[in-house]
Design goal:
- The complex is a heterodimer of chains A (about 290) and B (about 160).
- With about 290 residues, chain A is an alpha+beta fold.
- Chain A folds into three domains: about 45 residues, Uridine Diphospho-n-acetylenolpyruvylglucosamine Reductase, domain 2, CATH 3.30.43; about 110 residues, Uridine Diphospho-n-acetylenolpyruvylglucosamine Reductase, domain 3 (2-Layer Sandwich), CATH 3.30.465.10; about 110 residues, CO dehydrogenase flavoprotein, C-terminal domain (Enolase-like, domain 1).
- Chain A has eleven helices and 14 strands.
- In chain A, a hairpin with a 6-residue loop joins β13 and β14.
- The longest helix of chain A is centred in the C-terminal third of the chain and has 19 residues.
- Chain A starts with a strand and ends in a 9-residue tail after the last helix.
- Chain B has two domains: about 80 residues, Roll (Ubiquitin-like (UB roll)); about 70 residues, DNA polymerase, domain 1, CATH 1.10.150.
- In chain B, α2 crosses α5.
- Classes of the chains: A alpha+beta (about 290), B alpha+beta (about 160).
- The interface between A and B is medium-sized, with 31 and 33 residues.
Amino acid sequence: MKNVKYFAPATLSEALQLLEEYGPDISVLAGGTDLVRDMNLEFKIPQNILWIGRLPLEYIKEEADLLQIGAATRMQTAGSSSVLKAKAAALARAAGKMASPPVRSLATLAGNLCTASPAADPGCAMLGLGAEVVLSSTKGERVVPLDQFFIGPNETVRRPDELLTEIRVKPTGEGEGSSYLKIGRRQAMTLAVINATSRVKLDGAGNVQAVSIAVGAAAPTLLRIRPAEAMLAGQPLTEDTIREAGEIVAREIRPIDDVHGTIWYRRKTVRVLVARTLREAAKLNGGSKS
Amino acid sequence: MIKYPITFTLNGQRVSVEAPATINLLTLLRDYLNITSPKFGCEQGNCGACTVILDGEAVNSCLVLALTVDSRAVTTIEGLGTPENPHPLQVAFTERYGAQCGFCTPGMIMASKALLDKNPHPTREEVVEGIVGNICRCTGYNKIIESVLAAAETAK
């Protein structure tokens, strides 16, 4: 059996020092819902383990028009946060409904991002909200927008010496809202067959001032759908423009046939799901129930 | 194989044990400490049979790395009442046929306890949401939900 070393530093600088020293030979353990599962199933036995649960990385702060969310914030904390419910509703819903209560009291937001599942629920919400992440190392820190973070299934731009320390989201303000919805094979404890997030800001005349749309389980990574966003920009949000946005999304995605759903089904449902999130984010009638 | 010392509170008692970095809390409890109520089910966090309470919250013990419970508090159903003085959930599950084969029962009761500790008077829907991560293949859940609601009623 391997001699696996375990570290549980209490300060960020110690943690970053360890990451610099061990690089790819150390695995970051946050909530454990992916890493410990992989260890149990012998998919992956880490060389060494760095547990970040003793670092002060669970917080949700609103400062200077920016929501700063600690990397180790757990799903239940995010899901029950009144700040997130009011100003990043898509994320509060995705985190609050993911998996089950025992998983939500372990799983963290940064863990969800770094696992980089193409079907991630909170990940889809954060991407659709236009979030950025802070990657820290002994050399300093860099801020990466989430749409440049994912590079493939379970692959991100995080270097082995970096730790994802914070997630930053611009809070939704006046005339603005966000929505996250998912189709799964069951109501709970299920992987997304397709999921979608929209963030919409309308001007005084009811035209789209800003919009972002993200979908999951639709390509090798979570996707921002820029062409649909570009089409909606400056337009009134009507059933016609919403339908057109859905059609663009259905064309842009690159889904696969797998045990969870087919390409045909994903293309059929994604337009409906995106339309529902757009309506709900814009607080239009016909928005879906939570 | 390197072993690390762990000291934590288990069912109100301070325990010290040594374990390698690769084992989970479920294995620590069952194989190192002879606490056999948490059951070895899927080892993926899908079935809930291994649910215990860690620092007041229900967790899948199979997903918790054993070393991370150092200086924390773990409660299993062994710490939840005695044959003479059972917990209201234990009474309700017994009286209302909330258990059949019993395999899911310790996890089911620990998930329910975590729910009732936070929300002493849940609605039926909130009970369902609270045990959504615990699979039972016998009772069809109705008897379990009724048991949890009855336990909440007694505690009033």
